């Protein structure tokens, strides 16, 4: 399969897995699972899955000491802090508004990658991002009148942290296996969230079976599988394209909410889904054009060189 198509499918699978998280969290809350307990077990079980796979495959997990601080920061300052900020924003803002702010992260990813690579922003990326944000606004139906400054800062901070995490993930793929990096990151996140939960006195093991089912679901689909496929996708198509394609995940959330909780989709939400799908298509088409242009340039160079040598 074409590397670009395979990478795009991996990112869309990751986005779908992340999109399921809100639905499963709803079932967890219905079973009286606290936020702290849910976040800790989410990363704890995901870490167990990653390490189990590594030992099963007999993959080398030893890393140079200098790489450990990077993974530690990605786990604690990255995923753990993101989880805290995002769920805090959900408690202070309407979920639609918090999600709208969080999904600004593709903009920050594109800006960061442009600054780090010292290249100008591609028009195709900016257009795709614009379509994505317009689609999100229609789909989520954000109510800007219900604004809480602290909640807004939390959602915006989560978006910025996630953008940094995505860029850093692409960087470490050059020398660390996605399985190994994910194992370390989820382990560090679990440790940080356990400390956070204990300090808040929010930890409990008295959980109903339906709550455990939701926790395992979030750990496997929305953490283990989502993080792994995202890292593998970035390795193939890069962080900017991956960030834009990841905006597909609220579509999954909205559609599942409609099916499972009988929440009807309005005309504006349907319009938003169509616009986001257009942005996804634009992302794929723009990448294909870049690849075609690169191949054309290489072919032209080869022809000119051949004629000169002749």
TrEMBL record:
<feature type="domain" description="EamA">
    <location>
        <begin position="6"/>
        <end position="140"/>
    </location>
</feature>
<feature type="transmembrane region" description="Helical">
    <location>
        <begin position="123"/>
        <end position="140"/>
    </location>
</feature>
<comment type="similarity">
    <text>Belongs to the EamA transporter family.</text>
</comment>
<dbReference type="InterPro" id="IPR000620">
    <property type="entry name" value="EamA_dom"/>
</dbReference>
<feature type="transmembrane region" description="Helical">
    <location>
        <begin position="40"/>
        <end position="56"/>
    </location>
</feature>
<dbReference type="Pfam" id="PF00892">
    <property type="entry name" value="EamA"/>
</dbReference>
<protein>
    <submittedName>
        <fullName>DMT family transporter</fullName>
    </submittedName>
</protein>
<keyword id="KW-0812">Transmembrane</keyword>
<feature type="domain" description="EamA">
    <location>
        <begin position="151"/>
        <end position="283"/>
    </location>
</feature>
<keyword id="KW-0472">Membrane</keyword>
<feature type="transmembrane region" description="Helical">
    <location>
        <begin position="68"/>
        <end position="87"/>
    </location>
</feature>
<feature type="transmembrane region" description="Helical">
    <location>
        <begin position="93"/>
        <end position="116"/>
    </location>
</feature>
<feature type="transmembrane region" description="Helical">
    <location>
        <begin position="179"/>
        <end position="199"/>
    </location>
</feature>
<feature type="transmembrane region" description="Helical">
    <location>
        <begin position="146"/>
        <end position="167"/>
    </location>
</feature>
<dbReference type="InterPro" id="IPR037185">
    <property type="entry name" value="EmrE-like"/>
</dbReference>
<keyword id="KW-1133">Transmembrane helix</keyword>
<feature type="transmembrane region" description="Helical">
    <location>
        <begin position="211"/>
        <end position="230"/>
    </location>
</feature>
């Amino acid at each position: 399969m074409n590397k670009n198509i395979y990478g795009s499918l991996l990112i869309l699978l990751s986005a779908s897995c992340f999109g399921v998280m809100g639905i499963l969290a709803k079932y967890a809350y219905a079973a009286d699972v606290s936020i702290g307990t849910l976040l800790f077990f989410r990363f704890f079980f995901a870490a167990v899955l990653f390490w189990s796979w590594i030992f099963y495959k007999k993959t080398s997990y030893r890393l140079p000491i200098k790489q450990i601080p990077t993974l530690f920061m990605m786990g604690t300052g990255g995923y753990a802090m993101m989880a805290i900020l995002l769920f805090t924003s959900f408690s202070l803002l309407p979920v639609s508004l918090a999600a709208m702010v969080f999904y600004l992260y593709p903009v920050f990813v594109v800006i960061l990658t442009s600054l780090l690579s010292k290249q100008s922003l591609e028009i195709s990326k900016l257009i795709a991002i614009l379509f994505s944000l317009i689609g999100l606004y229609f789909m989520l139906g954000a109510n800007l009148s219900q604004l809480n400054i602290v909640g807004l800062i939390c959602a915006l901070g989560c978006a910025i942290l996630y953008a940094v995490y995505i860029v850093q993930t692409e960087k470490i793929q050059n020398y660390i296996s996605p399985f190994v990096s994910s194992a370390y990151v989820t382990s560090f996140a679990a440790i940080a969230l356990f400390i956070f939960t204990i300090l808040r006195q929010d930890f409990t093991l008295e959980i109903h079976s339906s709550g455990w089912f939701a926790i395992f679901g979030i750990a496997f689909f929305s953490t283990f599988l989502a993080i792994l496929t995202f890292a593998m996708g970035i390795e193939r198509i890069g962080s900017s394209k991956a960030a834009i394609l990841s905006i597909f995940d609220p579509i999954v959330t909205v559609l599942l909410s409609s099916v499972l909780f009988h929440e009807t989709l309005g005309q504006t939400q349907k319009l938003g889904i169509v616009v986001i799908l257009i942005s996804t298509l634009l992302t794929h088409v723009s990448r294909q054009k870049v690849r075609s242009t690169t191949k054309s340039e290489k072919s032209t160079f080869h022809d000119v060189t051949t004629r000169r040598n002749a």
